[in-house]
């Protein structure tokens, strides 16, 4: 009995000593971490200050990043599904590039946004469907903004913005906005364009639906890179003075997280509202169901792409 009690006491003592030793080691690690933080904090502050100084210097700033997403599949005699013999796939590509010139008295910002997507579903047992990849997502946007600074955060500016599709119906429709007004830069990386005098040129074969008009242009763009994360958000609004049916807006968002040597994962999504495009599509599907803007069911347009990304 005494031996049993003595053994239990020795085990308890060993456990207690080990627990105390672990706590002491954890305390030492915490102290070391605090010491490292105390050393790296001022260094990181100097690095951030130098980077801010570099960002404020005049000259060109260029960059690009994009996303590639896709999948391919092929089935033969897979009888558990409705089409046992089929091949399918989808491919999505997005690209974002910018070239911005910053000087003491003026700036010139240029950007390109590209989003292309293809999909196919080929039922091998029938000959009536397509065996090719069909273009679905098709977005092309080119923007150029020039401004003359009149204060630290405000400039008089001129904007040119062109939007169309590349794979199908190039420049049908195509939109060219040309306008003047002011540009506000409340914080770094955020640009807000307000142009009360803007003309929206619309190029299209169907003149009965698509019309050019005078209106106001508002653009908000935020582009930034923090470590391995790069993201861009762009909202472009045209408000027609002639009719709300001729107004439109597009909001695109692009995110990229770099994992290794420029390669990472990306996510892109966009929203659009355009009554002219919606009516043109409805008339092409069934002219009897939609004859004017009043009969139109103007649904919100959207897209998204997830996949591998590469940043330059």
Features:
312 residues; alpha+beta; twelve-stranded antiparallel barrel; 2 helices; 12 strands; flat
Short description:
The protein has 312 residues and is α+β, with helices and mostly antiparallel strands.
Written description of the protein model:
- There is one protein chain.
- This protein is α+β, with helices and mostly antiparallel strands.
- It is 21% helix and 53% strand.
- The protein contains 2 helices and 12 strands, in the order αβββββββββββαβ.
- It has helices spanning 2-55, 275-285, and strands at residues 59-75, 86-102, 106-123, 134-149, 154-164, 174-184, 190-203, 213-226, 229-240, 248-260, 263-274, 301-311.
- Strands 1-2-3-4-5-6-7-8-9-10-11-12 form a 12-stranded antiparallel β-barrel.
- It is flat, with a radius of gyration of 29 Å.
- It starts with a helix and ends with a strand.
- The mean pLDDT is 82.
Poorly predicted tracts of residues:
none
Q: Which structural class best describes the helix and strand composition? A: alpha+beta
Number of helices: 2
Shape: flat
Strand order of the largest sheet: 1-2-3-4-5-6-7-8-9-10-11-12
Give the proportion of residues in helices: 10-25%
Radius of gyration: 29 Å
What's the total count of β strands? 12
Order of helices and strands: HEEEEEEEEEEEHE
What is the straight-line distance between the termini? 75 Å
Strand residue content: over 45%
Overall residue-averaged pLDDT value: 82
- Major β-sheet profile: 12 strands, antiparallel, barrel
């Amino acid at each position: 009995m005494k031996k049993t009690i003595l053994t239990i006491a020795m085990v308890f003592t060993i456990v207690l000593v080990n627990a105390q030793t672990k706590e002491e080691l954890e305390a030492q690690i915490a102290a070391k971490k605090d010491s490292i933080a105390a050393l790296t904090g001022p260094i990181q502050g100097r690095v951030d200050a130098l980077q801010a100084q570099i960002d404020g210097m005049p000259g060109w700033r260029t960059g690009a990043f994009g996303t590639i997403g896709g999948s391919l599949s092929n089935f033969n005699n897979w009888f558990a599904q409705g089409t046992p013999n089929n091949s399918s796939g989808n491919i999505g590509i997005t690209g974002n590039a910018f070239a911005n010139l910053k000087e003491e008295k003026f700036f010139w910002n240029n950007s390109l946004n590209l989003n292309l997507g293809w999909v196919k579903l080929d039922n091998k047992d029938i000959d009536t469907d397509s065996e090719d990849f069909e273009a679905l997502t098709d977005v092309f946007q080119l923007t150029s903004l020039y401004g003359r600074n009149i204060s630290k955060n405000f400039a008089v500016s001129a904007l040119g913005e062109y939007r169309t599709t590349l794979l199908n119906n190039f420049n049908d429709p195509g939109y060219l906005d040309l306008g003047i007004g002011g540009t506000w830069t409340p914080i770094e990386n955020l640009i807000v364009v307000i142009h009360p005098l803007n003309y929206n040129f619309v190029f299209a074969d169907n003149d009965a639906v698509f019309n050019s008009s005078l209106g106001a242009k508002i653009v908000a763009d935020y582009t930034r890179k923090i470590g391995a994360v790069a993201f861009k958000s762009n909202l472009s609004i045209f408000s027609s003075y002639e009719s709300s049916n001729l107004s439109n807006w597009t909001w695109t968002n692009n995110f990229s997280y770099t994992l290794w040597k420029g390669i990472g994962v990306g996510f892109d999504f966009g929203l659009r509202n355009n009554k002219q495009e919606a009516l043109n599509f409805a008339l092409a599907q069934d002219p009897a169901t939609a004859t004017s803007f009043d009969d139109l069911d103007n649904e919100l347009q959207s897209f998204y792409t997830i996949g591998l990304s590469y940043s330059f």
